Amino acid sequence: MLLFKDLIWFFKQEKKSYGIGILVLVCVALINLFPPYAVRVIVDGASKGNLTREILLKWSLLLLGAGFIAYGLRYIWRLLIFGASSRLGRLLRKQLFEHFTRLSPQFYQEHRTGDLMAHATNDIQAIEMTAGMGVLTLVDSLTTGSLVIFSMAFFISWKLTLLTLLPMPLMAWSTSHYGTMLHKRFYKAQAAFSDLNDKVLENISGVRVVKAFGEEEAENEAFRLLSAEVVKKNIAVAKVDALFDPTIQLIIGISFFLAIAFGAKEVVNEKLTFGQLTQFTIYLGQFIWPMLAFGWLFNILERGRASYDRVNMLLKVKYEVLECEGAKDEVPDGQVVFEMASFTYPGTHLPVLDKINIAVNQGHTLGIVGKTGSGKTTLFRLLMREFDLAEGDIQIGGLSIYDLKLGALRAAIGYVPQDNFLFSTTIAENIAFGKPEAKLEEIKAVADLAAIHEDILQFLDAYGTLVGDRGVTLSGGQKQRISIARALLLQPEILILDDSLSAVDAKTEKAILQGLKEKRSQKTTLISSHRLSAIEHADLIIVLHNGQITERGSHSDLMAIEGWYASTYRSQQLESLIEEGGE
Amino acid sequence: MVIRRLLNYLRPHYKALSVASVILLLATFADVIGPILVKVFLDRHLMPRSFDSKDLMLLGGGYLGLHILSVGLHYYQLVSFNQIALKVIQQLRVDVFNHVQRLGLVVFDKTPTGALVSRITNDTEAVKELFVGVLATLVQNLVFLMGIFIAMFSLDVRLATFFLVLLPVILGLMYMYRRLSTKVYRIMRKELSLLNAKLNESIQGMTIVQAMRQEKRFRQEFDVINSAYYRASINNIRLESLFVRPAVELIYTFALVLILDFFGFQSLKGPIQIGVLYAFINYLDRFFEPVNMMMQRLSQVQQSLVAAERVFELLDDDRMAPRTLRDTEPPAIRNGQIEFKEVSFSYDDLSGAGIDVLKKISFIAYPGQTVALVGHTGSGKSTVANLLMRFYPVSRGEILIDGVTLSEFPDQELRSRVGLVAQEPFLFVGDIIQNITLSRTTVTKNDVEEAASFVQADEFIRKLPQGFEEPIGERGATLSSGQRQLICFARTMAIKPKILVLDEATASVDTETEEAIQTALEKMRQGRTTIAIAHRLSTIQDADLILVLHNGRIVERGTHTELLIKEGLYHKMFMMQQGTMGGG
């Protein structure tokens, strides 16, 4: 019931839907009392033989009228109450999504997509259920239940009512009990299914090993056992699930028996008419649902509660990246200065960057090289404020990035990440991602600059080709180049290529770099790369090793030092020679 | 077609199915007879006021007895039908899984892992809904409705005939609902999957969305989809409200009026059997719940059928793994001589023309020799291993082991004589012993320990808290990659293969394990014909023959020294690696 209290804000917001819906629901419950009464009148009339054509016609018409009105009212409350619960779902999804758009990259690093999806889908569905079915079962079981009892007790016989209702609480109790049991067993069945799923996943990902060792039969056997386990657990579920109907039948049957047996005595004693007895048994039938619903209600609420807590917890996560007061909202120019002592990722102990001092003038190119894990990407992430520095400062255009509005900072930077994430729309829309209003001509121009234009023309629908499952499967290099075009379209003051030429062949890389040099001569470019050919033209090259700058200078400076840069450069030259077949 | 194939799966269960059906009939009979007993009581005893206690006891006892019997039988049949449905699905699952085991690697290369997994688990789960829904709900409710009709006919043929008029009305309602709901439901499912896709994609690409300041646009786009889904849900609510429970309640009212008027008008002419009237009203009360239940199942059926279609599509995939061609006198691998004769291969061989990744490869590895394959990524060296392992069928050229064509060896022989060490160490969930033994019954505990000590894995294994029984988590995450590699070595060596196919690991491991791995590899190669795919030239300098591959051709061949003297591609590669070693 606590959950209803938590949702009170929503009920208030939808007070019209819920108010009228519940009112209509009560009306339907009232109308439902009528047909059994009509039956009584006609049955009594028929058994006594004092019916007339007029009476029959009148009651028939009344019954049909009530039926049609009830039909209309039932439609209305469903639409009102279930409609409102759908709106709650829509609202929560909207809130959650907006919240998602504000959460920091760090948050996304710490949470798995699957879990976040589960909250946004299953949990919201469970809450929706509470606001719809939950409200219905509560209101309906209370109103129908009490109205039916009231009618039976006051209009027919309170003694008979008491007697026949005796077994009913047992029904509410047992269905609620079964519900809990079912939930537990269902959980186990889900776990068994998930084991099965894991096994299949293991088998398919290890298919080469399975085949190499001739393990097919053993795998079949293991799968057979696991699937037998799934069957076993599901049969355990079915065994509880199958209890519901027979239990209800049993209890109802006993109630009916009591009603007929003791009702008959009352009829003989002329305290009841036979029509009343018939009316009574129909009421008894109407009482089944409220009892069932009541048992069910607790299960709905229990699940809704847990889901609501999870969604709420998610909504309470802070945004982490904050703007300071009086932050400037102007896009700075492309001069970049790093002046930092050290940086450690939150929740870890080892610093990933240490004593980094770099200054890049506007229009210059900075090259960063180093092994995986040397801190190249971290440097960029700090610049984009995906994480904040505890000490030291990073400046763009002479301003600390912490004195800039997040929007202004992001507007200054065009970032091409290592892992290229493309959206499942057309290629044109992917390139125009940051500037949806861009003209096709502009898009083509940047695609050409990123050396992907020719590739795109090869696709069936050229720029209109869909990316992803429903469209074309792009190679890693093609994805990289589309990401580059996507960043270029924004004409950012600072372009960051985070090892984003790794899957592009040497010739294309050269073409792209040449194009950048021409088109972006006045703008700053930051490039990190494993392949030194991508940065050898840079104005300043720094070599990162375990978070520290070990070498710095221009290409010729670094070759002269004869350190890591020079030896790596030579070996890579040789490597590319080998890839070309050594000719 | 799909339905017929699904029904075929019921065949082995016909016994259980007949028993369950008989029980269902009995339960329904006992269930339906109740109101008739009440009718007897009303017409013979209550109305004439003749209460013979013996008769009454019989009636009351009979009523309660039958009721309890029916409840018990109903429970039994509900469980049985579910059991049958679950077993049918298990069979279907096992069939798909077994089929997938026999499929060629080409299928795995071209189908995303997730899709295959989904076929075997989620799609069959959807088919389960169909069986449970159809068997458990549809059949039971239909039988129950038939029972009610039979009881009605036995009570009053004329009224029961009137009642038959209801059938077309109900069927018409069901038909209309099904037609409309398939459409509405499909739209709702579609909107939901769009919603989920958008959500999923937005969460995955949120960093980009934020970096490019498109949050507002994404919020708007999400709003549009969210609202579309909301509208679809509302349409669904509308449709269900118009056609399901409220409509069925309305039909109930009509039926009630029909019964009342029938008896009412009869009473104008003379006395009526009040018990029959009571029984009819009673039946009417229970007539419509089954109708509601059946209607609710309808919209699921279509979805399950689509899933079933996908499952059968996979079952019909006939791109099978290469298997032995003849069964008579299976040849054995005794010496382990390997010969490649002008082997060309394209991964698209099965579907038609493609780019050849191997072009007329010929070489001989004599028993006990090591032949090393070197070349850059994409030169085709892994393909040589894939073909020797018979992962793909050889269509052009020939591979011979001890002079016999590869395709003539039975699987069993090939898998027990040719050992593979894959690049990525793959471990199964289980403990270390299980991972070394696998399912091979010939491998004893002694063999396991021997193999482990042979590859020098025993040292670190014994240091683990539970030694050889140490459980391995998912993909062996608890172990270092070097340790995983050593366990895989032991797995390969446990059966002492004649031929070894080594795909050298590229993953960097700590220096200590690296040394252990190199020593182990050297020991493993001794006395075995070895085809080694080398990424680091330093590890194969002592090979008897080194083949340098470039774009699918052998461009240089010879021993280490011979190749160095040539000063060709191998020489350049060697220089490069020397350089990297020095500098890194």
List key phrases describing it.
heterodimer, A: 583 residues, alpha/beta, ABC transporter transmembrane region fold, Rossmann fold, 3 domains, six-stranded mixed beta sheet, four-stranded antiparallel beta sheet, 22 helices, 10 strands, 64% helix, 9% strand, B: 584 residues, 20 helices, 12 strands, elongated
Topology:
The complex is a heterodimer of chains A (583) and B (584).
Chain A: H1 2-6, H2 8-13, H3 15-32, H4 34-48, H5 53-102, H6 105-110, H7 113-156, H8 158-165, H9 168-205, H10 207-212, H11 216-241, H12 244-268, H13 274-315, E1 336-343, E2 353-360, E3 365-369, H14 376-383, E4 393-396, E5 399-400, H15 406-412, E6 413-416, H16 427-431, H17 440-449, H18 453-458, H19 476-488, E7 494-498, H20 506-519, E8 524-529, E9 540-545, E10 548-553, H21 555-561, H22 564-579
Parallel strand pairs in A: 3-8, 3-9, 6-7, 7-8
Antiparallel strand pairs in A: 1-2, 1-4, 4-5, 9-10
Chain B: H1 2-8, H2 14-46, H3 53-102, H4 105-110, H5 113-155, H6 157-164, H7 166-204, H8 206-211, H9 215-243, H10 245-269, H11 274-315, E1 338-345, E2 358-365, E3 370-374, H12 381-388, E4 396-401, E5 404-405, H13 411-417, E6 418-421, E7 430-431, H14 432-437, H15 445-454, H16 458-463, E8 471-472, H17 481-493, E9 499-503, H18 511-525, E10 529-533, E11 545-550, E12 553-558, H19 560-566, H20 569-583
Parallel strand pairs in B: 3-10, 3-11, 6-9, 9-10
Antiparallel strand pairs in B: 1-2, 1-4, 4-5, 7-8, 11-12
Helix pairs in contact in B: 2-3, 2-5, 2-11, 3-5, 3-11, 5-6, 5-11, 7-9, 7-10, 7-11, 9-10, 10-11, 15-17, 17-18
In short:
The complex is a heterodimer of chains A (583) and B (584). Chain A is α/β, with parallel strands linked by helices and 583 residues long.
Could you describe the 3D structure shown?
- The complex is a heterodimer of chains A (583) and B (584).
- By secondary structure, chain A is an alpha/beta fold.
- Chain A folds into three domains: 1-155 and 306-317, ABC transporter transmembrane region fold, CATH 1.20.1560.10; 158-271; 336-419 and 492-579, Rossmann fold, CATH 3.40.50.300.
- In chain A, 64% of the residues lie in helices and 9% in strands.
- Chain A is built from 22 helices and ten strands.
- Chain A has helices spanning 2-6, 8-13, 15-32, 34-48, 53-102, 105-110, 113-156, 158-165, 168-205, 207-212, 216-241, 244-268, 274-315, 376-383, 406-412, 427-431, 440-449, 453-458, 476-488, 506-519, 555-561, 564-579; strands spanning 336-343, 353-360, 365-369, 393-396, 399-400, 413-416, 494-498, 524-529, 540-545, 548-553.
- Chain A has a six-stranded mixed sheet, sandwiched between helices. Chain A has a four-stranded antiparallel sheet with strand order 2-1-4-5, with helices on one face.
- In chain A, a hairpin with a 2-residue loop joins strand 4 (393-396) and strand 5 (399-400).
- Chain A is elongated.
- The relative contact order of chain A is 0.08.
- With 584 residues, chain B is of the alpha/beta class.
- Chain B has helices at 2-8, 14-46, 53-102, 105-110, 113-155, 157-164, 166-204, 206-211, 215-243, 245-269, 274-315, 381-388, 411-417, 432-437, 445-454, 458-463, 481-493, 511-525, 560-566, 569-583, and strands spanning 338-345, 358-365, 370-374, 396-401, 404-405, 418-421, 430-431, 471-472, 499-503, 529-533, 545-550, 553-558.
- In chain B, strands 6-9-10-3-11-12 form a six-stranded mixed sheet, sandwiched between helices. Chain B has a four-stranded antiparallel sheet with strand order 2-1-4-5, with helices on one face.
- In chain B, strand 4 and strand 5 (404-405) form a beta hairpin.
- In chain B, helix 7 (166-204) runs antiparallel to helix 9 (215-243).
- Chain B is elongated, with a radius of gyration of 36 Å.
- Chains A and B meet through helix 4, helix 5, helix 7, helix 9 and helix 10 of A and helix 2, helix 3, helix 5, helix 7 and helix 8 of B.
